[in-house]
Amino acid sequence: MAVKVRIPSPLQKLTKNQSEVSANGKNIKELFSDLEKQYPGLRDRIYDESGSLRRFINVYINEEDIRFLKGEESEVKDGDDVSIIPAIAGGVS
Amino acid sequence: MSYVNGLKCRECGRQYQKEPIHVCEFCFGPLEVIYDYDGIKNALSRKVIEGRPKNMWRYRELIPIDGEPRVGRDVGFTPLVRAKNLGNALGVDNLYIKNDSVSHPTLSFKDRVVATAITKAMEFGYDTVACASTGNLANSVAALSAEGGIKSYIFIPADLESSKILGTLIYGTNLIGVKGNYDDVNRLCSEIAANYRWAFVNITIRPYYGDGSKTFGYEIAEQLGWRTPDNVIVPVAGSSLITKVWKAFKEFEMLGLIGKVNTKVFAAQAKGCSPVTSAIKEGRNFIKPVKPNTIAKSIAIGNPADGYYGIKTVNESGGYGEDVTDEEIIDGIKLLAKTEGIFTETAGGVTVAVTKKLIEQGRIKKNELTVVSITGNGLKTIEAVSNRIGNPVIIEPRLGSFQEKFGKLI
Fold first, then answer.
1. A with B: how many residue pairs have Cβ under 8 Å apart?
2. Which of A88, B61, B215, B331 has the fewest CB atoms inside 10 Å of its own CB, making it the most exposed?
3. What is the per-residue pLDDT across B274-331, written as a single tens digit (0 to 9) for each?
4. Does the residue B195 lie in any domain?
C-alpha cells in the first residue's frame, strides 16, 4: 500500500531532494517508521527524545490535521496524501 | 548600534546568525532573538528612557533592529488609563486600561510589531513585505509599507469585516481575500513564503516582528511608575502578545529597571475559538486545534503558532485562562464604552468580559492592581454591535418636535 508523503524543504536533504516520496503503512506511525528505513535520520527530525512527534511538526492526511483524527494512530489508505508541515513554516528560500 | 547577537531555537537551543529565518532547521521550533543584555544594561536606565520621545522607540535597545526605525517613528506610548468607572462596575478598586485602540497610525497594537518588522525587512534588503492577517495586521502592514515606500501583499480571510478591508485597501496595497479561515490563510502563506522572496512579517521575519510587542509590556511597567501590575489580562490569538508582555516584564526585572515581577498573566479568548484557554483549564500543555466560530474574528486563530508558549507563560506566572461567549463579548464592548468612553473592537470585548469573569471567580481580587489590555479599535468591527446599541431619535427641525420627545425643561 503506497501513500504519498510531502516532505518540507528543510528535510529534503534527507530524501535525496525529493519533495514527495512514497511510503507504506496502515497508519501514520507505521508510515513514518517505513520512511526512517528508506531515509535514515528522518526519525530524529520528526520525533523528539521522548519519542513523541515534535511539537512544531504538523501532520496532515488529505488536508486534515491528524490532531483532529486519531493522532499517530490515524489510518491511511492507498492514494492518501500525507503532508509533514512545520507548524510555523515558510520563508526558507 | 545593534544589541542583537543572533537567533536561538526556543526548543532545542541551536543558534543561528542574524538572518531572515524563523524556524529551527533541525527541530522546527520557533527562533527567538538573542540580545546582548550586558550591553543593554550599560546603555539603558530609567533616566535614559524617560529622556526620550514618547513612542515605542524609547526602548530602542530592546527592539531587534540595527539602525534607526525606518517607518512608524511615532508608534507607541499609548495611554494607560485609570479605569475608575469600569472598576466600580466590576467591583474592583485598582483597575487600568492599556489603550492601544488609539495606536498611531492604524488603531491597533499591531503597529508596534509592524514598525519593527518593516524596519527589519528593509534592513535585510527586501523590497516587498507580506502578511497573513485577521485584519488589524493587514491595516498596519498596508499603512506602514506605504510609509516606507515598499510593496505589500496582504492575505486575509475573504469574509472579514468591511472596515478592515477598507482600512487596508485605502493604502494602495495588493489585498488578497482567501476563501477560508485564518488558519487556511496562514497555511497558504507558508507555502507562498517558500516560493517568493518576500518578507512575510509574521512568518519569514517572525522572531523580529514578535519582539515589537514587548513595547506594550515595557510601557505598562513604565507608566505604572516602574513596576508591574498584580494582574494583566491579555487577548490571545496566536499567543505572541501574551508571551511578549511577560518577556518584557522579565527583561525589565533582569535589567534592574524594576523590582521583582509578581504579575499573574491571564489569557482571554472567545469561547468560539479557545484552544489556549481550554488547554489551560484542562491542565494540558499542548494545543488541540479548533475550527473558529466567533464574532471576535481578530483573535480567531484555531491553530495558534505560539500556543504552547502562551500556556507556559500563564502557568509560569500563576495566572489562568478564561473564555467568553459572543454575547458576553458584546456586553464587554458596551460596558467599556459606557464606563470609560473607550470604544474597542471584539478582542477588547473579550478581555473586558474575561476580566469580569475572573473577578467574579475570585481569581482577581478587589484591591489588586489589574491592567486590562485593549488592543484594537471598535470602529473596525462595527458589524459586531451595530444592531445592539439602539438608534438615534429622529425629529423634525422644530423645537416642538424635540419637546414632544424629551419634554419641556422650563
1. 78
2. B331
3. 999 999 999 998 888 899 999 999 999 998 989 999 999 999 999 999 999 999 999 9
4. no
